[in-house]
Amino acid sequence: MSTPLPSQELGAFLRAHRELLQPSDVGLTANSRRRTPGLRREEVASLSGVGLAWYTWLEQGRVTASRQVLEAVARALRLDPAGLRHAMRLAGHHEPTGPLDLNGSGDLASTVQPVLDSWPTSPAVLLDRHFDLLGWNTAWSALWGAPEVVPADRRNLMWLMVAGRQLRTVLHDWEPLAMNVFQHFRAQAGTSLSDPRTGEVYRHLDEDAPQLRHWWGCHSVAELTTRTVVVEPPGIGRIQLALSSFHPVDDPSALVLLFTPRTAEDHSRMTALTDRPLRAVTGLPERHAG
Q1: Which residue intervals define the domain HTH cro/C1-type in the entry (predicted)?
Q2: Distance CA 186, CA 106 (A)
């Protein structure tokens, strides 16, 4: 028995969801003579804004769909975010363009923020697919500086790693981690280099860290790997943190970074750091300091 091609799997997946829907689910009136289970192909095509012949070919695995068209089909079929992600992967679109929130399930940052706050002595941050900071906890601000004082267009992890003062001041051996962050971003942004925000991030890096211009022209990629990070905040002493990362289920293109104290002594020093009044440290180069 041969293995179905991804396009055939996509067609079967869409057909199965079409047959599960009733006309009333999408605001249509059912005909008493209807014999087709679920929706008809022409109904899905009309709801999606595509031609009947093309949609028929899509279910038959004979054509490929763009991301935008597949999103329209997904809305017509009432796919949930997990279903849309699966359809995107079957169509060859491995990188989502953002949170796949078809049904208004809420803002990712507000959903994840309580998780970040549950780690009072472990710096944690939520990043979107551009590595822009969406949320952070008190421990992150205490160690790396308060992100809210950084201009929104530069509130980006790569920018903070290479152009911000605070992070480089307290982080030992910052370059390997900064390079790994950039390589991971390049791997993730590979299919969306023409994205406006991706281009804006590169321009800011080029403007504010011109000495690292050879990094932006590099084509190497890598995963952001687990490692021990050593920091030394003024007046606190040396702290070892275990860096780990994971993707929120609601948006696999987003990323949570977590820096966990490795020992009881490290935990004690992070507690002392977070208990101190938060100073207004911008971590900005002079040209961007308020």
Answers
A1: 13-84
A2: 28
- Residue 241 structure tokens: 């943190």
Does residue 87 contact residue 78 with C-beta atoms inside 8 Å?
A: no
In sequence order, the 6+-apart residues with CB closer than 8 A to the CB of 185 are: 130, 131, 158
What is residue 189's DSSP assignment? T
Kindly list the structural domains of the chain, giving each domain's residue range(s) and its CATH number in brackets, ordered by start.
6-90 (1.10.260.40), 108-288 (3.30.450.180)
State the average pLDDT over residues 40-67.
Answer: 91
Q: What share of the chain is helix, strand, coil (3-state, %, to 5)?
A: 50, 10, 40
Query: What percent of the chain has pLDDT above 70?
Result: 84
State pLDDT tens for residues 158-187: 999 988 888 888 999 888 898 888 888 887
Alpha-carbon distance of 170 to 120, in angstroms, equals 19
Distance CA 116, CA 118 (A): 5
* Rounded-to-integer distance, Cα 27 and Cα 4, Å: 34
- What whole-number distance in Å separates Cα of residue 190 and Cα of residue 170? 31
Q: How many CA atoms lie within 13 A of 228 on its CB side?
A: 8
Specify the 3-state DSSP secondary structure of 97.
coil
The pLDDT of residue 138: 96
Tell me if 273 sits within 8 A of 233, measured CB to CB.
Answer: yes
Distance CA 266, CA 21 (A): 55
CB 165 within 8 A of CB 283: yes
Token duo for residue 282: 């911008």
Residue 5: band (very low, low, confident or very high) from pLDDT cuts 50, 70, 90 = low
Question: Which residues have CB under 8 Å from 203's CB, separation 6+?
Answer: none
Nearest to 251 by CA among 153, 126, 135: 126
